[in-house]
Amino acid sequence: MAAPTGTANEPWDLVVVGAGPAGATAAIAARHARPEARVLLLDRSDFPRDKACGDGIAPHVLDVLDRFGLGDVVDDWAPVPDLELARGDLLTRGTMRRPARVVPRAVFDARLVDAACDAGVQLRRHRVRHVEPHQDGVVLDDTIHAKVVIGADGASSVVRRQLGRPPARRRALAIRGYAPTRRDHDGLQVIRFGQRRQPSYAWAFDRGDGLSNIGYGELVQPGADLTRSVMLDRLDELLPGVAQDAADWRAHHLPLSEARWHQPDGPVLLVGDAAGLINPMTGEGIYYAVATGALAGAVAAVSAPGAAGERHRILVRRLLARHLLSTTIGSRLAERPGVLDGGLRAATADQRVFDDLVEMGLGRGVLTPRVLAGLARSVRPFARRGPTLHVPAG
Predict the structure, then answer these.
(1) pLDDT tens digits, 340-376
(2) Strands (E), 75-210
(3) What angle do CA 20, 21, 23 make, to 5 degrees?
(4) pTM of the entire structure?
(5) C-alpha to C-alpha distance for 251 and 54, rounded to whole angstroms
């Protein structure tokens, strides 16, 4: 049977702009919610394609994908059970309650796109330049008509910009490469926090295939000159020699989440990086991408165009509101002298604090009373070295 054309007389039920994890998941979720839905997935690139990222796939990501029969999509990649965090002479290492995986985006994204196509989604290479919302639908580039559009086109989202949404107020910049895994990093995700303004850290994440995803990122400050050479120098300061024989360097901007998240009313929904959803404590974004993509796809499949935006906003806030408030507070606290060190001490002293912090960094965990109490205990003896810490209520 011929694929639907999406003409003005017969618009697509849903057009998804961007075929990364957020967009592919949204397309899959739409077909899952309504198998007869006509769904078009657009991307400016062919797949597989590389994408700058830390490549960490938290178990929370697979929990979402499991709803669509894709919980085993990266089972052939080795689990990475241990996480090591350090700053200066302070170091904490623990086994996560559930292991993560480190999977190149060239692999992970292509598998989700293939799954979307297997579900009946139509894939087309197309770079969207113009978005024109109407009360009963959306027109893309004057030729593609849809009842609902999902913007999943990344940190520099055209869809977000066309909606008049302002860019994220806080952004980070990171650079990533691949290098042979050092023997002492086998089975580890390693993070070394910098001595400068937080958040800033270097990382080395073992992929389990002889290579590690390595990189460095930090919060962009006004007037900062974060060139490639500067970031590589800071990576080498924190993880000396880890970049030896590295290749495939790519840099990318990260629009960091804030406490209050907004989605406009109407037939255009925003997900993942395009929605400004990047964890400000860790830079993690794949969980947010698949979680909000899944919500948006289901909403788009069953909602009237004019009601889709409001419904998506309600569901995302229900899922992430407390978490976004916690990560915003956590990232701001980490900028204060002694708080990051206090967090490392607290995580070393109590595995439950370690677990709670991992949940905040990789999933949708919140600042628990246990974390706040651990911070207060760990920071108090060192308070004379910096300004008084006032820990906000959870």
Answers:
(1) 999 999 999 999 999 999 999 999 999 999 999 998 8
(2) 79-87, 90-102, 122-125, 131-134, 137-140, 144-151, 171-180, 188-193, 200-206
(3) 65
(4) 0.92
(5) 11
